[in-house]
Amino acid sequence: MQGQVRIEHLTKIYRVRQRQGLFKAKETQVEALKGISLEIRPGEVFGLLGPNGAGKTTLIKILTTLLLPTSGEAWVNGYRLRQDDNLIRASVGCMLMGERGLYWKLTGRENLVFFGALYHLSPADRARRADEIIARLGLEDLADRTVETYSSGQKMKLAFAKALINDAPLLILDEPTNTLDLPSARELRAVVRELNQAGKTVIYTTHIMAEAEMMCDRVAILDRGEVLALGTVPELKASLGRDEVIRIEGVISSKASQAVQSLPGVTRATRAAVDGRTQLTVVARDQRALLPRLIETLTAHNAVVQKITPEEVTLEDVFIARTGRTLADDTRVK
Ligand SMILES: Nc1ncnc2c1ncn2[C@@H]1O[C@H](COP(=O)(O)OP(=O)(O)O)[C@@H](O)[C@H]1O
Ligand SMILES: [Mg+2]
Fold first, then answer.
1. Ligand of minimum distance to the alpha carbon of 178
2. Largest Cα–Cα distance in the chain?
3. Domain shared by 82 and 158, yes or no
4. Per-residue pLDDT tens over the stretch 184-205
Protein backbone atom coordinates (compact mmCIF):
# COMPACT_ATOMS: atom_id res chain seq x y z
CA MET A 1 0.00 0.00 0.00
CA GLN A 2 1.01 3.57 -0.62
CA GLY A 3 1.68 5.83 2.31
CA GLN A 4 -1.32 6.77 4.41
CA VAL A 5 -0.41 10.37 3.70
CA ARG A 6 1.72 11.55 0.82
CA ILE A 7 2.86 15.13 0.56
CA GLU A 8 4.64 16.47 -2.50
CA HIS A 9 6.29 19.89 -2.66
CA LEU A 10 3.68 21.62 -0.52
CA THR A 11 4.12 25.33 -0.17
CA LYS A 12 2.07 27.90 1.66
CA ILE A 13 2.50 31.62 1.41
CA TYR A 14 0.33 33.77 3.66
CA ARG A 15 -0.36 37.26 2.42
CA VAL A 16 -0.55 39.71 5.26
CA ARG A 17 -1.70 43.30 5.05
CA GLN A 18 0.25 45.52 7.34
CA ARG A 19 -1.19 48.90 8.28
CA GLN A 20 1.06 51.83 7.59
CA GLY A 21 -0.56 54.88 9.05
CA LEU A 22 -4.20 55.62 8.48
CA PHE A 23 -4.68 55.15 4.75
CA LYS A 24 -1.81 53.06 3.59
CA ALA A 25 -1.35 49.33 3.84
CA LYS A 26 1.50 47.23 2.64
CA GLU A 27 1.18 43.61 1.64
CA THR A 28 3.87 41.31 2.93
CA GLN A 29 4.28 37.60 2.48
CA VAL A 30 5.05 34.90 4.98
CA GLU A 31 6.43 31.75 3.47
CA ALA A 32 5.15 29.25 6.02
CA LEU A 33 5.92 26.08 4.03
CA LYS A 34 8.76 26.00 1.54
CA GLY A 35 8.15 22.85 -0.44
CA ILE A 36 7.52 19.98 1.97
CA SER A 37 7.62 16.39 0.72
CA LEU A 38 7.14 13.40 2.96
CA GLU A 39 5.25 10.18 3.33
CA ILE A 40 3.49 8.84 6.40
CA ARG A 41 3.19 5.08 6.64
CA PRO A 42 0.15 3.11 7.76
CA GLY A 43 0.28 2.25 11.45
CA GLU A 44 3.00 4.64 12.53
CA VAL A 45 3.02 7.53 14.97
CA PHE A 46 4.60 10.22 12.86
CA GLY A 47 5.94 13.25 14.70
CA LEU A 48 6.17 16.79 13.43
CA LEU A 49 8.66 18.45 15.74
CA GLY A 50 9.61 22.08 15.45
CA PRO A 51 9.70 25.37 17.32
CA ASN A 52 6.86 27.90 17.30
CA GLY A 53 6.46 29.25 13.80
CA ALA A 54 7.98 26.21 12.09
CA GLY A 55 4.83 25.62 10.03
CA LYS A 56 3.37 22.61 11.85
CA THR A 57 -0.16 23.96 12.22
CA THR A 58 -0.14 25.25 8.65
CA LEU A 59 0.75 21.78 7.38
CA ILE A 60 -1.93 20.14 9.54
CA LYS A 61 -4.58 22.62 8.41
CA ILE A 62 -3.76 21.87 4.79
CA LEU A 63 -3.92 18.11 5.36
CA THR A 64 -7.31 18.44 7.03
CA THR A 65 -8.62 20.66 4.18
CA LEU A 66 -9.05 23.73 6.41
CA LEU A 67 -6.53 25.71 4.44
CA LEU A 68 -5.57 25.70 0.76
CA PRO A 69 -1.92 25.22 -0.09
CA THR A 70 -0.27 27.73 -2.41
CA SER A 71 1.16 24.88 -4.49
CA GLY A 72 1.93 21.20 -4.26
CA GLU A 73 -0.05 18.01 -3.90
CA ALA A 74 -1.15 15.75 -1.08
CA TRP A 75 -3.03 12.49 -0.70
CA VAL A 76 -4.67 11.59 2.59
CA ASN A 77 -5.94 8.04 3.11
CA GLY A 78 -5.69 7.59 -0.64
CA TYR A 79 -7.85 10.65 -1.39
CA ARG A 80 -6.49 13.54 -3.31
CA LEU A 81 -6.46 16.95 -1.70
CA ARG A 82 -8.74 19.53 -3.40
CA GLN A 83 -10.45 16.73 -5.32
CA ASP A 84 -11.86 14.51 -2.57
CA ASP A 85 -11.93 16.92 0.37
CA ASN A 86 -15.19 15.53 1.77
CA LEU A 87 -13.77 12.02 1.80
CA ILE A 88 -10.61 13.28 3.46
CA ARG A 89 -12.61 15.01 6.20
CA ALA A 90 -14.67 11.89 6.83
CA SER A 91 -11.58 9.69 7.12
CA VAL A 92 -9.57 11.84 9.52
CA GLY A 93 -9.96 12.48 13.25
CA CYS A 94 -8.48 15.87 13.92
CA MET A 95 -7.60 17.94 16.96
CA LEU A 96 -6.36 21.41 16.21
CA MET A 97 -4.65 23.69 18.65
CA GLY A 98 -6.27 27.01 19.40
CA GLU A 99 -9.19 26.44 17.12
CA ARG A 100 -11.01 23.83 19.14
CA GLY A 101 -14.35 24.12 17.40
CA LEU A 102 -16.47 23.17 20.40
CA TYR A 103 -19.91 24.56 21.13
CA TRP A 104 -19.73 26.28 24.47
CA LYS A 105 -23.47 26.28 25.13
CA LEU A 106 -23.67 22.52 24.66
CA THR A 107 -22.52 19.91 27.14
CA GLY A 108 -19.51 17.76 26.37
CA ARG A 109 -21.76 14.82 25.54
CA GLU A 110 -24.00 16.96 23.31
CA ASN A 111 -20.90 18.19 21.48
CA LEU A 112 -19.78 14.63 20.80
CA VAL A 113 -23.25 13.56 19.64
CA PHE A 114 -23.48 16.65 17.43
CA PHE A 115 -20.14 15.93 15.73
CA GLY A 116 -21.17 12.29 15.39
CA ALA A 117 -24.20 13.52 13.44
CA LEU A 118 -21.92 15.56 11.14
CA TYR A 119 -20.14 12.31 10.36
CA HIS A 120 -23.51 10.70 9.52
CA LEU A 121 -23.52 8.26 12.42
CA SER A 122 -27.00 6.98 13.23
CA PRO A 123 -28.56 8.43 16.43
CA ALA A 124 -27.99 5.14 18.27
CA ASP A 125 -24.37 4.92 17.08
CA ARG A 126 -23.62 8.53 18.05
CA ALA A 127 -24.93 8.02 21.56
CA ARG A 128 -23.06 4.74 21.96
CA ARG A 129 -19.83 6.16 20.56
CA ALA A 130 -20.08 9.23 22.82
CA ASP A 131 -20.62 6.96 25.85
CA GLU A 132 -17.62 4.83 24.93
CA ILE A 133 -15.31 7.80 24.49
CA ILE A 134 -16.49 9.49 27.69
CA ALA A 135 -15.81 6.28 29.61
CA ARG A 136 -12.45 5.67 27.90
CA LEU A 137 -11.17 9.17 28.64
CA GLY A 138 -12.68 9.35 32.11
CA LEU A 139 -14.85 12.37 31.26
CA GLU A 140 -17.92 11.23 33.20
CA ASP A 141 -17.77 14.16 35.62
CA LEU A 142 -17.60 16.69 32.79
CA ALA A 143 -19.81 15.14 30.17
CA ASP A 144 -23.10 16.68 31.23
CA ARG A 145 -21.89 20.20 31.97
CA THR A 146 -21.81 22.93 29.34
CA VAL A 147 -18.41 23.51 27.81
CA GLU A 148 -18.33 27.15 28.94
CA THR A 149 -17.80 25.86 32.48
CA TYR A 150 -14.70 23.85 31.49
CA SER A 151 -11.10 24.79 32.28
CA SER A 152 -8.76 25.08 29.30
CA GLY A 153 -7.34 21.64 30.05
CA GLN A 154 -10.84 20.18 30.15
CA LYS A 155 -11.68 21.77 26.79
CA MET A 156 -8.51 20.24 25.45
CA LYS A 157 -9.65 16.80 26.62
CA LEU A 158 -13.03 17.26 24.97
CA ALA A 159 -11.32 18.40 21.75
CA PHE A 160 -9.36 15.15 21.87
CA ALA A 161 -12.58 13.19 22.48
CA LYS A 162 -14.11 14.91 19.45
CA ALA A 163 -11.20 13.70 17.29
CA LEU A 164 -12.21 10.13 18.15
CA ILE A 165 -15.92 10.36 17.34
CA ASN A 166 -15.72 9.17 13.73
CA ASP A 167 -13.36 6.30 14.58
CA ALA A 168 -11.09 7.41 11.72
CA PRO A 169 -8.05 5.37 10.64
CA LEU A 170 -5.90 8.52 10.78
CA LEU A 171 -5.62 10.80 13.82
CA ILE A 172 -4.06 14.21 13.38
CA LEU A 173 -3.20 15.88 16.67
CA ASP A 174 -1.76 19.39 16.84
CA GLU A 175 0.13 19.83 20.13
CA PRO A 176 -2.53 17.81 21.97
CA THR A 177 -0.95 18.07 25.42
CA ASN A 178 -0.34 21.80 25.21
CA THR A 179 -2.41 23.09 28.11
CA LEU A 180 -2.72 19.82 30.01
CA ASP A 181 -1.26 19.21 33.45
CA LEU A 182 1.30 16.41 33.69
CA PRO A 183 -1.01 13.54 34.71
CA SER A 184 -3.55 14.46 32.01
CA ALA A 185 -0.81 14.73 29.39
CA ARG A 186 0.49 11.32 30.40
CA GLU A 187 -3.02 9.87 30.22
CA LEU A 188 -3.61 11.36 26.77
CA ARG A 189 -0.33 9.95 25.47
CA ALA A 190 -1.28 6.53 26.83
CA VAL A 191 -4.61 6.66 24.99
CA VAL A 192 -2.86 7.72 21.77
CA ARG A 193 -0.46 4.80 22.14
CA GLU A 194 -3.33 2.38 22.67
CA LEU A 195 -5.19 3.70 19.65
CA ASN A 196 -2.01 3.32 17.62
CA GLN A 197 -1.59 -0.25 18.83
CA ALA A 198 -5.16 -0.91 17.77
CA GLY A 199 -4.10 0.10 14.25
CA LYS A 200 -4.59 3.82 13.90
CA THR A 201 -2.04 5.96 12.14
CA VAL A 202 -1.20 9.10 14.08
CA ILE A 203 0.33 12.44 13.12
CA TYR A 204 1.56 14.01 16.34
CA THR A 205 2.69 17.60 16.40
CA THR A 206 4.80 19.00 19.21
CA HIS A 207 7.51 21.51 20.02
CA ILE A 208 8.60 19.39 22.97
CA MET A 209 11.55 17.21 22.11
CA ALA A 210 10.98 14.70 24.90
CA GLU A 211 7.41 14.17 23.77
CA ALA A 212 8.47 13.41 20.19
CA GLU A 213 11.04 10.95 21.55
CA MET A 214 8.48 9.24 23.73
CA MET A 215 5.68 9.01 21.21
CA CYS A 216 6.93 8.80 17.68
CA ASP A 217 8.11 5.99 15.43
CA ARG A 218 9.47 8.53 12.97
CA VAL A 219 9.97 12.24 13.34
CA ALA A 220 10.28 15.06 10.84
CA ILE A 221 12.10 18.03 12.30
CA LEU A 222 10.51 21.11 10.83
CA ASP A 223 12.04 24.57 10.93
CA ARG A 224 10.99 27.74 9.11
CA GLY A 225 8.85 25.82 6.66
CA GLU A 226 11.40 23.16 5.79
CA VAL A 227 12.05 19.57 6.81
CA LEU A 228 15.54 19.59 8.31
CA ALA A 229 15.72 15.91 9.11
CA LEU A 230 13.49 12.87 8.98
CA GLY A 231 13.89 9.43 10.48
CA THR A 232 13.37 7.26 13.54
CA VAL A 233 14.56 8.80 16.78
CA PRO A 234 17.67 6.57 16.90
CA GLU A 235 18.42 7.38 13.24
CA LEU A 236 18.19 11.09 13.86
CA LYS A 237 20.46 10.82 16.87
CA ALA A 238 22.93 8.64 15.00
CA SER A 239 22.97 11.23 12.22
CA LEU A 240 24.98 13.44 14.56
CA GLY A 241 27.69 10.80 14.45
CA ARG A 242 28.46 11.67 18.01
CA ASP A 243 29.61 9.09 20.52
CA GLU A 244 27.54 8.63 23.62
CA VAL A 245 28.88 8.50 27.13
CA ILE A 246 27.94 6.35 30.10
CA ARG A 247 29.45 7.02 33.51
CA ILE A 248 29.48 4.18 36.00
CA GLU A 249 30.49 4.54 39.65
CA GLY A 250 31.19 1.79 42.12
CA VAL A 251 33.82 -0.80 42.84
CA ILE A 252 35.14 -1.86 39.47
CA SER A 253 38.33 -3.87 38.97
CA SER A 254 40.68 -3.23 36.07
CA LYS A 255 39.76 -6.70 34.79
CA ALA A 256 36.11 -5.68 34.67
CA SER A 257 37.10 -2.50 32.90
CA GLN A 258 39.08 -4.44 30.32
CA ALA A 259 36.13 -6.76 29.72
CA VAL A 260 33.93 -3.74 29.08
CA GLN A 261 36.53 -2.29 26.73
CA SER A 262 36.40 -5.41 24.57
CA LEU A 263 32.58 -5.39 24.21
CA PRO A 264 31.43 -4.78 20.66
CA GLY A 265 30.12 -1.22 20.28
CA VAL A 266 32.44 0.21 22.93
CA THR A 267 34.84 2.81 21.60
CA ARG A 268 36.65 3.37 24.86
CA ALA A 269 36.41 2.49 28.55
CA THR A 270 38.44 4.59 30.96
CA ARG A 271 38.83 3.75 34.64
CA ALA A 272 39.65 6.40 37.22
CA ALA A 273 39.54 6.71 41.00
CA VAL A 274 37.11 9.31 42.33
CA ASP A 275 36.74 9.77 46.11
CA GLY A 276 37.88 6.24 46.86
CA ARG A 277 35.45 4.80 44.35
CA THR A 278 36.05 3.83 40.78
CA GLN A 279 34.49 5.73 37.96
CA LEU A 280 34.31 4.00 34.63
CA THR A 281 33.64 6.20 31.61
CA VAL A 282 32.39 4.25 28.65
CA VAL A 283 32.23 5.87 25.24
CA ALA A 284 29.97 3.94 22.91
CA ARG A 285 28.10 4.20 19.66
CA ASP A 286 24.68 3.12 20.87
CA GLN A 287 24.41 3.01 24.62
CA ARG A 288 20.80 1.88 24.62
CA ALA A 289 21.79 -1.35 22.88
CA LEU A 290 24.91 -1.68 24.99
CA LEU A 291 23.54 -1.10 28.49
CA PRO A 292 22.19 -4.61 29.25
CA ARG A 293 25.42 -6.29 28.09
CA LEU A 294 27.48 -3.74 29.95
CA ILE A 295 25.77 -4.46 33.25
CA GLU A 296 25.97 -8.19 32.63
CA THR A 297 29.72 -7.98 31.99
CA LEU A 298 30.37 -5.87 35.07
CA THR A 299 28.36 -8.19 37.30
CA ALA A 300 30.15 -11.23 35.87
CA HIS A 301 33.43 -9.61 36.97
CA ASN A 302 32.13 -8.99 40.51
CA ALA A 303 31.88 -5.26 40.10
CA VAL A 304 29.63 -3.34 42.49
CA VAL A 305 27.69 -0.75 40.54
CA GLN A 306 26.42 2.17 42.60
CA LYS A 307 25.43 4.64 39.95
CA ILE A 308 24.98 4.70 36.20
CA THR A 309 24.57 8.02 34.42
CA PRO A 310 23.85 7.77 30.75
CA GLU A 311 24.49 11.06 29.00
CA GLU A 312 22.22 10.80 26.04
CA VAL A 313 22.16 12.62 22.78
CA THR A 314 18.69 14.12 22.44
CA LEU A 315 16.61 15.30 19.48
CA GLU A 316 17.25 18.78 20.81
CA ASP A 317 20.97 18.16 20.14
CA VAL A 318 20.05 17.21 16.58
CA PHE A 319 18.05 20.42 16.20
CA ILE A 320 20.80 22.56 17.67
CA ALA A 321 23.40 20.93 15.46
CA ARG A 322 21.36 21.75 12.35
CA THR A 323 20.19 25.25 13.23
CA GLY A 324 22.38 26.65 15.97
CA ARG A 325 19.15 27.43 17.84
CA THR A 326 17.10 25.62 20.48
CA LEU A 327 13.55 24.36 20.08
CA ALA A 328 12.40 26.96 22.58
CA ASP A 329 13.16 29.78 20.14
CA ASP A 330 10.08 31.32 18.56
CA THR A 331 10.57 31.57 14.81
CA ARG A 332 7.09 32.93 14.11
CA VAL A 333 7.03 35.80 11.67
CA LYS A 334 5.08 38.64 13.27
N1 LIG B 1 -3.16 33.24 9.15
C2 LIG B 1 -1.88 33.59 9.04
N3 LIG B 1 -1.53 34.75 8.39
C4 LIG B 1 -0.24 35.09 8.27
N5 LIG B 1 0.80 34.37 8.73
C6 LIG B 1 0.53 33.23 9.38
C7 LIG B 1 -0.81 32.76 9.58
N8 LIG B 1 -0.79 31.61 10.25
C9 LIG B 1 0.52 31.34 10.47
N10 LIG B 1 1.31 32.31 9.96
C11 LIG B 1 2.78 32.35 9.96
O12 LIG B 1 3.25 31.14 9.33
C13 LIG B 1 4.38 30.62 10.01
C14 LIG B 1 4.07 29.20 10.47
O15 LIG B 1 3.08 29.24 11.48
P16 LIG B 1 2.43 27.91 12.11
O17 LIG B 1 2.04 27.01 11.01
O18 LIG B 1 1.36 28.35 13.05
O19 LIG B 1 3.66 27.31 12.91
P20 LIG B 1 3.69 26.30 14.16
O21 LIG B 1 2.36 25.62 14.24
O22 LIG B 1 4.82 25.38 13.86
O23 LIG B 1 3.97 27.14 15.37
C24 LIG B 1 4.69 31.57 11.14
O25 LIG B 1 5.69 32.45 10.71
C26 LIG B 1 3.38 32.31 11.35
O27 LIG B 1 3.61 33.61 11.84
MG1 LIG C 1 1.09 25.37 15.83
1. 2
2. 82
3. yes
4. 999 999 999 999 999 999 999 9
